[in-house]
Design goal:
19 strands, EC 2.1.1.320, transit peptide, alpha+beta, NDUFAF7, 5-stranded antiparallel β-sheet, Rossmann fold, 454 residues, 17 helices, methyltransferase, mitochondrion
Length: 454
């Protein structure tokens, strides 16, 4: 069976793909072109923007120091001045760039992984592709292109795309990339789907603000650079026990923020520190743990899998909280709302919070995952089909960016949640004599085991 999987995966990888475009429609909704895709200046745009720093200092003066988690939540997702709400932060002109924007190979191999897991689950009739924090829609577009090219493989399934996105700016970019300008948005907030459309191939695409609102059913969840932006609590070991790191106003400079330690235990420091913790400084993403539990429950109940790709470590790092602005490191407390805030994902914490109802694989480095998925073979296919020297050089340099241990190759990791039955040893057929009477091995999981071409 392992050899078969290797042949199947290498066959899927060796196929060449073409990039997509899109139109679409829906019912009981109103056209979104005017609000979602057209921009025009108005008198309101000339008014000074509300100040995130002023908002935070007023809040702290009124109620006292706030947790780092609350600070991150306000800075990144405040509905008026939040970084993700008002900025287009991705790409060469933004504050950071992600793997799907660097190379189409990344998204194509994620698409192959999704199809491989769908096949490993017995080819269910329904397949929901769910992406958390879809960026510009590049990853989803590359995945859908793989599905289109391999329609003979997945043609028997009813496929739909579901995007969980809180940023109106990014939702516009995603809709433009995936469904064109003919999508439609909801009239009010009562509908959990706030925007919807169809790809040029007729696949339905829906946007949600919360994972809770995505319909139940067999789903493959993808989260690429999503968990690193979720709010973290920071804790410091002291002579008096664990104390939470808080954000306060500097008493000597009213327009400046600073870190302080809570004088006594907080609810978070009393409940979130794992027993036996040996580090002196710990970051805990309680919101990330809650989302992992949600994913685990959905996978257990409805079937499917989750693939997480992010900066991360396996319970070894301490202080990783940082900011990015213009592709450079930025002081996390300076000019809040103008820069991205991030912290490395603690995969050991995600594994613990997932519980025993699902199987957890990884983390494995991005370099190893993509190599196991056959990125070298994919690169050769693209190079053979390309005669333009500049494009060939771009393919090689983007491959280096993804794979080089000193760049993204060892900094990013892949982690997966699967149904327990996915890794169960298949039952040997009754009434047949098998050589040496060995039970069949479990079906390998693409990306987390070495790809076999035999």
């Amino acid at each position: 069976m392992g050899a078969f999987v290797g042949v199947k995966t290498s066959y899927l990888i060796s196929r060449s793909f073409i990039r997509p475009v899109s139109p679409s429609a829906a019912v009981r909704w109103r056209p979104a072109q005017l609000r979602l895709f057209c921009s025009s200046s108005s008198p309101d745009e000339q008014k000074p923007r509300p100040s995130m720093l002023r908002h935070l200092t007023s809040k702290i003066k009124a109620t006292g120091p706030i947790t780092v988690a609350e600070y991150m939540r306000e800075v990144l997702t405040n509905p008026v001045t939040g970084y993700y709400v008002k900025n287009s932060m991705l790409g060469a002109d933004g504050d950071f760039i992600t793997s799907p924007e660097i190379s189409q190979m990344f998204g194509e191999l994620v698409g192959i992984w999704i199809i491989s897991e769908w096949m490993g689950a017995g080819r269910p009739k329904q397949l929901q592709l769910v992406e958390l924090g879809p960026g510009k829609g590049s990853l989803a577009a590359d995945v859908l292109r793989v599905f289109r090219q391999l329609s003979s493989v997945v043609g028997g399934a009813s496929v739909s795309l579901h995007l969980v996105e809180v940023s109106p700016v990014l939702a516009r970019l995603q809709a433009d990339a995936l469904t064109g300008s003919s999508g439609e948005e909801a009239d009010g907030d009562e509908d959990p789907v706030y925007h919807r459309g169809r790809t040029r191939d007729g696949l339905p695409v829906s946007w949600y603000r919360r994972l809770d609102d995505v319909p139940a059913g067999f789903s493959v969840f993808v989260a690429q650079e999503f968990f690193d932006a979720l709010p973290i609590h920071k804790f410091q070991r002291t002579d008096r026990g664990w104390r939470e790191v808080m954000v306060d106003v500097d008493p000597e400079k009213e327009e400046q923020l600073r870190f302080v330690l809570a004088p006594s235990p907080t609810l978070a420091s009393s409940t979130l520190i794992q027993a036996g913790e040996r580090r002196n400084h710990v970051e805990v993403c309680a919101e990330g743990g809650a989302i992992i539990q949600q994913l685990a429950r959905r996978i257990t109940d409805g079937g499917g899998a989750a693939l997480i790709a992010d900066y991360g470590h396996d319970g070894t790092k301490t202080d990783t909280f940082r900011g990015f602005k213009g592709h450079q490191l930025h002081d996390v407390l300076s000019s809040p709302g103008s820069a991205d805030l991030t912290a490395d994902v603690d995969f050991s914490y995600l594994r613990k919070t997932a519980g025993g109802g699902v199987a957890c694989l990884g983390p494995v480095s991005q370099r190893n995952f993509l190599k196991n998925m056959g990125i070298d073979a994919r690169l050769q296919v693209l190079l053979r089909s390309c005669a333009d020297p500049s494009v060939r050089q771009q393919l090689i340099s983007s491959y280096d960016m993804l794979m080089n241990p000193k760049k993204m190759g060892e900094r990013f990791h892949f982690f997966s949640l699967l149904q327990l039955s996915r890794l169960a040893r298949p039952t040997a057929p009754n009434g047949l004599k098998l050589e040496k009477n060995k039970n069949p091995a479990p079906l390998p999981v693409a990306g987390f085991t070495e790809l076999q071409y035999s």
